Amino acid sequence: MAKKPEPQTHHSATYTCPFCFGSVDLKNIHYQCTNPACTKIFLRELDEKNARKYRSKNIEEEIDIENSIFLGKDPAGSAPVTTRYHIIRNSSGICDICNKPVYKRLCPSCHNPIPQGAEDEGSSVFVLLGPKGVGKSHYIAVLIDQLKNSFSKEFNAIMSSATDRTTLKYREMYYKRLYEEGRKLAPTLSFEESKESREPMIYYLKFFKGDSSRVYTLAFFDTAGEDLDSTGKMMGLNLNSFISRASGIVFLVDPLQIPYINTRIRMDNKPPTGVNVANMLSDIVNIIRTNKSLKMKDQITIPLAVVLTKADVLMKAPENDEESSILFGLNSSLNIERERGKYDKTNFEQISAEIEEYMRRAVSTAFTQTAKEFKEHSYFAVSALGSNPTGNVLTRGISPMRVEDPFIWLLNCESLEEKK
Ligand SMILES: Nc1nc2c(ncn2[C@@H]2O[C@H](COP(=O)(O)OP(=O)(O)OP(=O)(O)O)[C@@H](O)[C@H]2O)c(=O)[nH]1
Ligand SMILES: [Mg+2]
Ligand SMILES: [Zn+2]
Ligand SMILES: [Zn+2]
User: Fold this and answer.
1) pLDDT cut 90: percent of the chain above it
2) Strand arrangement of the beta sheet that strand 30-32 belongs to
3) Rounded mean pLDDT of the chain?
4) Distance of alpha carbon 214 from alpha carbon 207, whole angstroms
5) Per-residue pLDDT for 10 more than 60?
6) In this predicted structure, what is the pLDDT of residue 304?
7) Top-confidence residue, 150 or 1
8) Domain spans, the chain
9) CA angle 22, 162, 10 (to 5 degrees)
């Protein structure tokens, strides 16, 4: 059999846009001029046909057709996306109005920015998947805060938003409610209900090592559980390409939704049991296999982190024997702290072995077998809130447990290392 060609990741001319997941040929992109005067001149000099296309209600802003479409807005309607900065729809790197060089690069399909160094580093898009109510939104909200603060300090990194929309979305939809108002987040709207939810939050995570640095583009894509119910629905919403092009998949499992655990645990306001997670993971496997045209014997090269959420509910003192069989006791490896400031492989391997065995027992052997179809996979247990909320108000505050673990692991996976 002929050897497969090595993936062209280093200095490759294609880039996966973390916003629209389009494959971008870096020789064929759009630009934006930072001089607002160019927009005014451009708008003034348009012929009648183009004036209808590009003139907005504001004489200082042109209509961004591509970005409007990406955000589900009609470019010819009453509220298209507009911009003060003239868009150059060719890859010359020269503004067609002021004739000066331009440096702000845009994805030609969705007009979101292409960062410096995209050629070298590419983007690492991590998708979070899991059924309804598993805790995706709370996990993302707390994880972003941890990555920005404690994680960045610990690993000598800086995390910054890629666009103002990311800053705004995180603040308005997550941070304010959770950290300032101390209230639980609402269920995520499905794609059909809100096209804006289609846009992931994009961050640049820059690590400093001596004189050099390395940047990862992180895309957090908060899906609504009901959009992941069936393969058909995922395909229809184009989620299949989001998933297949990811650099890492974080698959969340809610212990309380697992019948074996749900029937044995004693707690107030127990949620109902949920979908069969083994089937859901196998749907994801099938989507990736189909999308990447993989043979049955080929392992999937996207790393998979299986993450048990709401671990706080499993860390209490057991009330009876039945309960003690599903709780993490004092001897659990989850109680062993990871070594700070480095990738503590031993600690993660210990936890992974324990949770894998737990999942095999509580869910099924079929589940752990399906996870093995991913060449690199590891198990984790996290808690975003640190305690079980009783009402909508988080009276006990937010004290996250191990939320950053899956990311430390993902960032150190072989498939990501190869990109360096
Ligand atoms: N005990 C505990 N409960 C949690 C935690 N995180 C979330 N929850 C509970 O789980 C519920 C659902 O969490 P969400 O983050 O909204 O779940 P989701 O997966 O985003 O749900 P959809 O958007 O509807 O798909 C919350 O309302 C909380 O009651 C946690 O860390 N610990
Ligand atoms: Mg949600
Ligand atoms: Zn794009
Ligand atoms: Zn210009």
Assistant:
1) 64
2) 87-88, 30-32, 104-106
3) 89
4) 5
5) no
6) 98
7) 150
8) 14-106, 123-417
9) 55
Which atom from ligand 1 is nearest to the alpha carbon of 385?
31
Superfamily of domain 123-417: P-loop containing nucleotide triphosphate hydrolases (3.40.50.300)
Backbone angles phi, psi at 152, to 5 degrees: -60, -40
Locus of tokens 């080929």: 298
Instruction: Report whether pLDDT(54) > 60.
Output: yes
* Distant-in-sequence, close-in-space partners of 245: CB < 8 Å, separation ≥ 6: 16, 21, 125
Answer whether residue 27 shows pLDDT above 60: yes
CB-proximal residues (5 Å) to ion ligand 2 = 136-137, 188
CA dihedral 70, 76, 82, 84 (to 10 degrees): 130
Is pTM beyond 0.90? Reply is no
What element of type H or E holds 388? none
Which residues, 6 or more positions from 288, have their beta carbon under 8 angstroms from its beta carbon?
243, 244, 294, 300, 302
Pocket of ligand 1 (CB under 6 A): 130, 132-138, 184-185, 187-188, 224-225, 310, 312-313, 383-385, 388-389
